[in-house]
Design goal:
heterodimer, A: alpha/beta, Alpha-Beta Plaits, 12 helices, about 35% helix, elongated, B: alpha+beta, 4 domains, membrane (chain B), transmembrane helix (chain B), transmembrane (chain B), ABC-2 type transport system permease protein (chain B)
Chain lengths: ~300, ~650
């Protein structure tokens, strides 16, 4: 399902929690919603999941509004940052509830995933550890086979191996069923190898929204050492958009056609050089800097 | 939810039913104990009490406990069913499900109504079985009526509790709000009345008659009261409409407020401010009134009591509403509460001052009851059980005197609760106005020799006060089940009423001072759904015959055998009236000195008791027996005690 958010506002009293949000997430992709605590990520996720009604604007899945629309909601699962289960309930009973609620529920998948994660179906969920609870929440969510998963801080409390396994299952569902995922996080590195596109929120607004493949095709990081530092022409020739200089070593972000970058670099007789892909943090450092925001003020990790 | 066309979601119904399953089981068990088991116990061993007949409306009379249990259950039912709204995680989870909010609420309502109705149906089936097997007196119609009424009362409470659930977030707050909705108006009015009684003299002693509106606005009271008084269709309809309105409002609040403010304690801040202010006023009145009554030092101590009460009540209310002992103060809330308190006191002082000083014009009064005794009567039942004129006198002279006495009492009254030795008088005035309304005033700070009490005594000096005689005025009513004389010691036949009334005029021949003030006996009449009590004269021939026929002696009936001190007085006709007035004013020692009373020795007492047992009374004579009530002890010299009237009774003897 394609997610389209247009001019969404959401306020609580006089406080605007999210403001003029425009967002589009293509079917079968993972979108990362990044931002510091209090940026408005959870509120936006709740608007996206139909828990909150937008004060203005629309949230559509394949052109259909989600708020109070059971047809759309039956294909959308929202996983809270703290998984919720009914009091005293077992995984099996919770699965029964999900089965009654979500039309695509798969018993087979539930049995497979329960066995895979090693959670006994008759174990009381509230007795589980934080990480186990999150695994149980993922088992239920994946078994419901939603077309859209909205995940709020999805990997908190999971160990690295479990994160990897869950990411793999998610990727399988995206590949096999075209599932769309929107995951919010305040952790850039965690989302780095997962997302197809990212947005960054601050003060209730989306400051930045890009496809990562676009950025990686047009931007790269160049580390280069000279006997003597080059003149300004070097930077304009290479279309450097951001640079740091330490002694005779320059680290810069280059934008534009990077296919013949090596050819351009060698003209300046560097002692050595290395062309690297950009990390998410570097992309944001550059992009947010352009927008006038210091990344350190927005993402704290 | 496999079928999108299904109106009901079985999973959601199953979830909500599971939430309240054990609560419903407890309700059902209590229902069965409260009705079928209790009725079985009451009617169990008929052979042991062959004379026992099951009252006609036993089921309704005994269902009060079940109705109360059911109303409490209905409130808890709503609290637990809507508990998902109280916590952000559960609220988000439930609202992320593919179910509309309105549909969720419909499922809550269906579950709740089912949880109410099913146990009642089971209880009704058990009652039917009892009817068929061993209690035929409980008719199927009665069971049907009880079932419908129980469902009605429970659903009204459930509906209101459901609406309350959309106003707050937190199960304890939900409980508080249900209690406040149900009882705050009654509590505020009761405490206002109590505070007024503590601060003003001249307030009506009849709280119930002054509180009809607020009692009608208290559904639990209405629900239980109707079991005994009969169903009031208008009141029931009003509450049914209120229940429907509560449900519609619940849907509206859910639709428009959407439970998005789940992290706040109150979904509407203005509601919190109003409730804080009004509940603080109630707390202020409770503490201030308690201080006024228990520490009756001065008006200043009362004012301090109310001030401290307001502060303490505000802090407690904030703790409850903020769900924490560590409260956060809000200027808005403090200012709002202060404004409400100031407005309350402005209305309180102006309203009650006018109330206690209001004296009707004699031309507006249809009839009046005025007495220096305490009144036991209830206005509503007078017309039903008594002849016209009972207690109330329409004579113009009496009305004029009553109005004059009332005016004098208004001028003489003082601050209540701080009594002086002189303030022993009591004045009860009840007017029936020509426009159909009633006006009741009670004064308790009057001196016994005050102008108003003198006027009342003068009214009773001329002739026997027939208007106040219970047996002279009571009707032969088909609902009367029993008639008791002399502190419930003689169960009289109802034909005593006719005999008494046939001899009533004889009382008019005696000295009014004697028959109005001595030989007064308590009479109690039991009715199917009521009880009445009053006073008559022992000097009536019908009463004397009834006593003579009894196995008990007068000494036992009137506790003369338990009297430790007895005096006799022989007075001239001229002295009699003054003596009676002094009896109400002087201590027994002062009275004995003043009138040279003869203190009886043990032998004389025995002789006197025999005379009393032989019914040798003489209201036409001048000799009085003044005997102490049981457990009377002669006060020490430094503590002379109150007036003789409080410790001694009088009989006119031969």
């Amino acid at each position: 399902m394609k997610l389209a958010v247009n001019s969404v506002d959401k306020s609580f009293g006089k406080k605007k929690a999210v403001e003029q949000i425009d967002l589009s997430v293509t079917e079968g992709t993972i979108h990362g919603l990044l931002g510091s605590n209090g940026a408005g990520k959870t509120t936006l996720m709740k608007v996206l999941s139909g828990i909150y009604k937008a004060d203005s604007g629309t949230v559509n899945y394949d052109g259909k509004n989600i708020y109070e629309n059971p047809d759309v909601k039956s294909n959308v699962i929202f996983m809270h940052d703290i998984p919720f289960f009914f009091k005293g309930v077992t995984l099996k009973k919770m699965a029964k509830f999900y089965k009654g609620m979500y039309k695509n529920w798969s018993d087979e998948r539930f049995i497979q995933l329960s066995a895979h994660f090693g959670i006994a179906p008759n174990k009381q969920l509230n007795q589980l550890s934080k990480g186990m609870k999150r695994q149980a929440a993922f088992i239920l969510a994946f078994s419901a086979r939603p077309k859209v998963m909205l995940l709020d801080e999805p990997f908190d409390g999971l160990d690295p191996i479990m994160r990897k396994q869950i990411k793999n299952i998610m990727m399988q569902d995206i590949a096999n069923h075209g599932m769309t995922v929107v995951a919010s996080s305040h952790n850039l590195r965690e989302m780095e190898d997962l997302c197809d596109s990212v947005s960054i929120m601050h003060g209730g607004k989306i400051l930045f929204h890009k496809e990562l493949t676009d950025i990686r095709g047009t931007h790269c990081k160049l580390q280069i050492a000279f006997k003597e530092l080059p003149e300004e022409k070097f930077f304009t020739d290479l279309n450097v958009v951001h640079q740091t200089v330490k002694g005779r070593i320059i680290t810069c972000i280059v934008k534009g056609d990077i296919s013949n970058l090596e050819e351009k670099v060698t003209k300046y007789n560097p002692l050595m050089y290395d062309i690297l892909p950009l990390t998410l943090e570097e992309i944001f450092t550059y992009e947010m800097g352009e927008l006038g925001y210091e990344i350190s003020n927005i993402i704290v990790e | 939810m496999k079928s999108q066309t299904s109106l009901l979601n079985k999973t959601l119904l199953s979830h909500f039913s599971g939430t309240v399953f054990w609560l419903t089981i407890v309700f059902m068990a209590l229902n069965i104990i409260a009705l079928p088991v209790s009725i079985w116990i009451v009617t169990f061993d008929r052979e042991l009490y062959p004379d026992y007949t099951i009252p006609e409306n036993l089921l309704f009379q005994m269902s009060a406990g079940q109705i109360i249990i059911g109303m409490i259950f209905s409130a808890f039912l709503a609290m637990f069913l809507l508990n998902y709204l109280n916590d952000e995680a559960s609220s988000d989870f439930m609202h992320s499900l593919p179910v509309k909010r309105t549909a969720t609420l419909i499922h809550v309502l269906i579950t709740g109504v089912t949880a109410i109705v099913v146990p009642l149906v089971i209880t009704a089936v058990i009652l039917l079985a009892e009817h068929m097997i061993f209690i035929p007196e409980i008719t199927v119609t009665d069971i049907g009526k009880w079932f419908v009424y129980a469902v009605f009362t429970h659903i009204v409470i459930f509906s209101i509790a459901i609406f309350a659930g959309f106003l707050v977030n937190g199960i304890f707050l939900h409980l508080q709000l249900i209690i406040l909705i149900m009882f705050l108006p009654l509590a505020v009015w009761s405490l206002t009345f109590a505070a007024a009684t503590a601060l003003y003299d001249g307030i009506s002693s009849s709280f119930m008659e002054q509180s009809e509106l607020v009692l009608t606005a208290t559904f639990p009271y209405v629900a239980v009261n109707q079991l005994y008084e009969g169903i009031n269709i208008l009141h029931s309809l009003i509450w049914a409409v209120a229940a429907v309105a509560a449900i519609l409002l619940a849907f509206a609040v859910y639709k428009f407020r959407r439970n998005e403010y789940v992290t706040l304690n109150f979904n509407f801040n203005w509601l919190k401010e109003i409730l804080t202010a009004v509940t603080t006023v109630a707390g202020m009145l409770a503490i201030g009134t308690a201080v006024s009554i228990f520490i009756p030092v001065s008006a200043v101590s009362s004012i301090i009591g109310f001030g401290v009460g307001a502060v303490v009540a505000y802090l407690i209310v904030e703790m409850f509403f903020q769900k924490s002992a560590k409260i956060q103060f809000s200027w808005k809330s403090i200012v709002c509460t202060l404004i409400v308190i100031i407005l309350f006191w402005i209305m309180f002082i102006t309203g009650w001052t006018k109330y206690v000083n209001d004296v009707p014009a004699a031309a507006e009064v249809d009839s009046v009851y005025i007495s220096s005794d305490y009144s036991y009567y209830t206005g509503e039942t007078l017309d039903e059980y008594f002849k016209e004129g009972y207690l109330f006198n329409g004579d113009k002279r009496v009305i004029d005197s009553a109005v004059t006495a009332h005016q004098a009492a208004v001028e003489d009254k003082s601050f209540p609760t701080i009594y002086t030795d002189e303030e022993t008088g009591h004045l009860e005035i009840q007017y029936k106005m020509k426009d159909g309304t009633e006006m009741i005033r009670t004064f308790q700070t009057l001196a016994s020799d005050s102008e108003s009490l003198k006027l009342v005594n003068q009214l009773h000096q001329n002739k026997y006060d027939m208007n106040s005689d219970f047996l002279a005025n009571v009707k032969q009513h088909p609902d009367m089940t029993e008639l008791w004389l002399l502190n419930d010691t003689i169960l009289a036949d109802v034909k005593l009423i006719d005999d008494y009334q046939a001899h009533a005029d004889e009382l008019l021949k005696y000295d009014p001072a004697i028959v109005n003030n001595t030989g007064r006996i308590e009479v109690n009449a039991g009715y199917k759904n009521n009880y009445e009590s009053g006073y008559s004269s022992i000097y009536n021939k019908a009463v004397l015959e009834q006593i003579a026929a009894s196995e008990l002696t007068v000494e036992e009936m009137m506790y003369v055998d338990q009297s430790s001190t007895m005096y006799t007085a022989e007075l001239s006709d001229e002295e009699m009236n003054t003596f009676i007035n002094d009896y109400k004013k002087l201590t027994i020692d002062e009275l004995a000195d003043e009138y040279k009373l003869q203190n009886l020795s043990e032998d004389e007492k025995t002789e006197m008791i025999e005379q009393v047992n032989n019914l040798e009374f003489a209201p036409e004579g001048n000799k009085l027996l003044i005997y102490s009530y049981p457990e009377y002890e002669t006060p020490e010299e430094e503590y002379p005690g109150g007036s003789a009237e409080f410790d001694f009774s009088i009989l006119a003897i031969q």
